[in-house]
Design brief:
It is built from 31 helices and 27 strands. The protein is of the alpha/beta class and about 900 residues long. Bound molecules: adenosine-5'-diphosphate and magnesium ion.
């Protein structure tokens, strides 16, 4: 047996081999040591007495799923070697084969997957000419590929469409593009050729969290080999039918290598992988990893959980496939206004008919995960219960389709047409399987009676045989006078007569002893064996026939899996659209109008996450005004025009704002405000209504967010280095169509350094990139910028001051903040009074720009507490305004400045 083990082990390199022995799965050698550690199993050894004991660890076969889950989560691959012969009938040693290899990216078992999340496996082909990336969701069959040229070829650069911007083309880093896609997909596993382990792309890949890198032999990535695998699988002679041309070569290679790996690990039909789709980046908004993270689109920055992310608050879908599609829409918002409006039209129609929306959701909620079910059918893994669930889901469709009839929006109408009821499939399953079939095929009782005459006959025979045994037992009790005599059954001996030890001498001579236990003896008789044969054989044959009938049914269904997948996609879309409509109604969202102009205008916008977490109007809504107000908008709605005129401080003929420079104290709501602008843009482009009273969203080709000083020390880079790397990427790749939000640039270095960098970056964004930008900063000095940058405006967060107290109103208003209030915040935080007062004095000196002859700020020396206590004995404590008055340098003051100074002091006294 160990010889067979070693053979199998050699066939499955890089995996932990789970070797079935009797009722256990065992691991040996190093595998056993790893498993003992990861799974907490006891490490024992085989052939203990010998000179060469083999380390061994194992667990009972029925605990397989639980242990597999742990292994996979820890990033391991596992090969499962099962007994493929019945130990009862096997001659010699039972034959063992690897039945499947489970890897993080190739899970299909329901128990190992999160129903709300897609589980992708990717392959990267780092060619010289181009990088290829392919990805597959095995549990649904979605299969796509992408090719990114390695060098900037003409026409491939990332220029914005508008003529005005052609003078500036952004530099594209192909590796960054690939990583961006991986950030969107978050695959569990990625294949790379083992000879390209050190390529720039593979190295950066290794840094991604939660990704298992799997090295494959280079020949898997050979162009000819990869293409062959695809052609053979799709049974086509070319891939042109999939719209894959010469430009897609690198992606096709990655796809071929990927498919080859999946065939090797799955060892079952992959019929549900019906096509390979080229992924064209132009039609979706690009969002890099850092931006996804800082905007907390699908998980939170700190805990990394789904709870608290934008996805989490938007997800009220009622099916797992809807939940996955929603995540997909959010991860890749659209850029084509026509496509966006198609979704918005459907959502709007559903908001207008709440009853329809509710009915759809009610029906959908009763549907099972049709998408993953049909994939399990196609890979021959579906259980009888899976098929029953499939039929039950199909049974909901007629009503759903009827409710969808006669809709006016284009998307709902298309979905209605595409919704295939698959009536013959449903009828086939319903008429073949019993109503509540068992989970496994091996125990019978899953096929209805009347389906197959021979099955009915065998069942009758088995049932009859059992009755005979009951009669036989009664007869033998009477004959022997042993009241406790029983007919029993076990797998080893079959049927037997059991007699307690006390009755041993009453046993008739025709009984043949089979087994002696402590308190019983077991016997057989020729008569009993004869019937046993009949019953068992009938039962066995019935079960075998049931299996046959079930497999045939599953095959018939799997031939139609294309239709099932299509229907599953329709249901997923309906679920997402109804979900968005439901949010729009419940949370009072408005429909954004979508334009291609570089505009971002939001009236009374709310942060979607905070708004949900703090219902009841606690969240203070805010406006955003970027880009030229639409002329059409102005004439059609006088209210908008008023609002615009009111909030936009610029005169009408002034150039449109492209940069909002937002100043204000800490904790005022700056970060919240700028993130909100980005989130609303993303939501609009995914086809959602918005938490606002009105919005005009100019489609953004990319959204960049550089938010907060996120601590990346764990990755070995200083915070400031990370901050600058991210900023560099924005400045190198943003186009005139992008939306950029910057939060506190330059914080990680000295103040003067920071201000200078922030200043220069703002100028560059203004003059060179000209993209819509929201820049939040606590550097008060930057409020000077709009004097020289015509499209840059100061906004600030309104505060309410009473004496020394400050209340943040969270209201963003035009104009520069008059001071930065850091000291007030420090006071609120409970810093000692001494420190606060001293800081006030220093601030006043700095602000008044008092310098000595060497240009150093002129700060009066600090008095210790003791000194001050002494002073206080003789004089009343000095008033800060008096102190301030003392320090005023009248020779330097113009009359106007003096007047301002006086007004300021008066304000402080109040
Ligand atoms: P800043 O970036 O100016 O330091 P934040 O955006 O981090 O401030 O917000 C500070 C706090 O104020 C957060 O706890 C946030 O929940 C709250 N907040 C921000 N904006 C609003 C708003 N518009 N309405 C109500 N609370 C808000
Ligand atoms: Mg902030």
């Amino acid at each position: 047996m160990m010889q067979r083990y070693l053979e199998v082990k050699a066939e499955t390199p890089g995996t932990l081999l789970l070797f079935r022995m009797g009722d256990f799965y065992e691991l040996f050698y190093e595998d056993a040591e790893t498993a003992a550690q990861v799974l907490g199993l006891t490490l024992t050894s085989r052939d203990k007495g010998s000179t060469n004991p083999v380390p061994m660890a194992g667990f009972p076969y029925h605990a397989l799923e639980g242990y597999l889950k742990k292994l996979i989560q820890a990033g391991y691959r596992a090969a499962i070697c099962d007994q493929v012969e019945d130990p009862k009938t096997a001659k010699g040693m039972v034959r063992r084969e690897v039945t499947r290899i489970v890897t993080p990216g190739t899970l299909t078992d329901e128990t190992l997957l999160d129903p709300k999340e897609s589980n992708y496996i990717a392959a990267l082909s780092p060619g010289n000419e181009a990088l290829g990336l392919a990805w597959l969701e095995l549990s649904t069959g979605q299969f796509q590929c992408l090719t990114v040229p390695a060098r900037d070829a003409p026409g491939r650069t990332h220029s914005s469409p508008a003529g005005a911007s052609s003078r500036r083309t952004a530099r594209v880093d192909p590796v960054a593009l690939v990583l961006e896609e991986l950030a969107r997909l978050r695959p569990a596993e990625c294949l790379v050729p083992e000879n390209a382990r050190t390529s720039p792309a593979a190295v950066r890949l290794a840094e991604l969290d939660g990704l298992t890198l799997t090295e494959r032999a280079p020949w898997c990535f050979a162009p000819h080999q990869a293409r062959e695998v695809l052609l053979k699988h799709f049974e086509t002679r070319t891939l042109e039918g999939f719209d894959l041309g010469a430009d897609d070569d690198a992606g096709v290679i990655a796809a071929g290598a990927l498919l080859e790996y999946v065939q090797e690990t799955q060892r079952s039909s992959l019929m549900h992988i019906l096509k390979l789709e080229p992924y064209r980046r132009g039609s979706t908004m690009l969002i890099d990893e850092a931006t996804r993270r800082s905007l907390e689109l699908t998980r939170t920055q700190r805990e990394g959980t789904r709870a608290g992310s934008l996805l989490d608050v938007l997800d009220e879908t009622v099916t797992p496939m809807g939940a996955r599609l929603l995540a997909d829409w959010l991860a890749s918002p659209l850029t084509d206004p026509v496509a966006i409006n198609r979704r918005l039209d459907a959502v709007e129609e559903l908001t207008r008919d709440p009853l329809l929306c509710r009915d759809l959701r009610e029906q959908l909620a009763r549907s099972y995960d049709l998408e993953r079910l049909s994939a399990r059918v196609a890979t021959q893994r579906a259980t009888p219960r899976d098929l029953a669930a499939l039929a039950q889901s199909l049974a909901l469709l007629p009503k759903l389709k009827a409710r969808l009839a006669g809709r006016s929006s284009d998307l709902l109408r298309t979905l209605e047409v595409r919704l295939d009821l698959c009536p013959e499939l449903r009828a086939d399953i319903e008429s073949t399987l019993v109503d509540d079939p068992p989970l496994v095929v091996t125990e019978g009782n899953l096929i209805r009676s009347g389906v197959h005459p021979q099955l009915d006959e065998l069942r009758e025979l088995a049932r009859g045989g059992k009755q005979w045994i009951a009669r036989y037992q009664a007869r033998e009790i009477e004959r022997t006078g042993i009241q406790s005599l029983k007919v029993g059954f076990n797998k080893v001996f079959g049927y037997y007569l059991e007699v307690t030890a006390a009755n041993r001498d009453k046993v008739p001579p025709d009984y043949m002893r089979k087994q002696t236990l402590k308190n019983q003896e077991r016997f057989i008789t020729p008569e009993l064996k004869e019937y046993e044969d009949k019953v068992l054989r009938a039962e066995e044959r019935a079960i075998a026939l049931e299996q046959e009938l079930f497999t045939a049914l599953r095959e018939r269904v799997s031939r139609e899996c294309r239709r099932l997948q299509e229907t599953a996609q329709v249901l997923a879309q309906l679920d997402v659209l109804a979900n968005l409509a439901q949010l729009a109604v419940q949370r009072r969202y408005c429909r954004p109008s979508i334009t291609t102009e570089p505009i971002l205008q939001i009236r009374e916008g709310r942060h979607p996450v905070l708004d949900k977490l703090r219902p009841g109007g606690e969240f203070v809504p805010n406006d955003v005004l970027l880009g030229e107000p639409l002329r059409a908008e102005r004439s059609s709605s006088s209210e908008t025009a008023d609002a615009a005129a009111h909030t936009d401080p610029a005169p009408l003929h002034a150039p449109p704002t492209t940069i909002i420079l937002l100043t204000g104290p800490n904790m005022a709501g700056k970060s919240t405000y700028i993130r909100q602008a980005a989130l609303l843009t993303i939501m609009a482009q995914m086809g959602s209504f918005l938490p606002a009273s009105e919005a005009v969203i100019g489609v953004a080709d990319r959204v960049f967010a550089r938010v907060g000083a996120s601590d990346e020390l764990s990755k070995g880079q200083s915070t400031f280095m990370v901050e600058m790397t991210e900023t560099a990427r924005i400045l190198n790749t943003a186009t005139e169509r992008s939306l950029v939000i910057l939060d506190e640039i330059g914080r990680g270095t000295s103040t003067y350094d920071g201000i200078s960098l922030a200043w220069a970056i703002t100028e560059f964004l203004h003059d060179e990139i000209r993209c819509r930008t929201l820049f939040a900063t606590h550097y008060h000095e930057l409020t000077e910028l709009p004097q020289t940058l015509p499209r840059c405006r100061n906004w600030n967060v309104a505060v309410h001051e009473t004496g020394d107290d400050v209340i943040f109103l969270h209201k963003i208003v035009p104009g520069a903040a008059d001071r930065s209030y850091g000291i007030h915040v420090a006071r609120l935080a409970g810093l000692p009074r001494d420190v606060i007062e001293r800081a006030d004095v220093i601030l006043d000196q700095l602000e008044a720009d008092h310098h000595d002859a060497q240009g150093k700020p002129n700060i009066p020396p600090r008095k210790t507490r003791a000194q001050r206590r002494q002073l206080q004995l003789f004089e009343p404590p000095p008033h800060p305004v008096i102190e301030e008055l003392k320090t005023l340098d009248l020779d330097q003051l113009t009359p106007l400045a003096a007047l301002q100074e006086l007004a300021r002091m008066k304000q402080r006294l109040q």
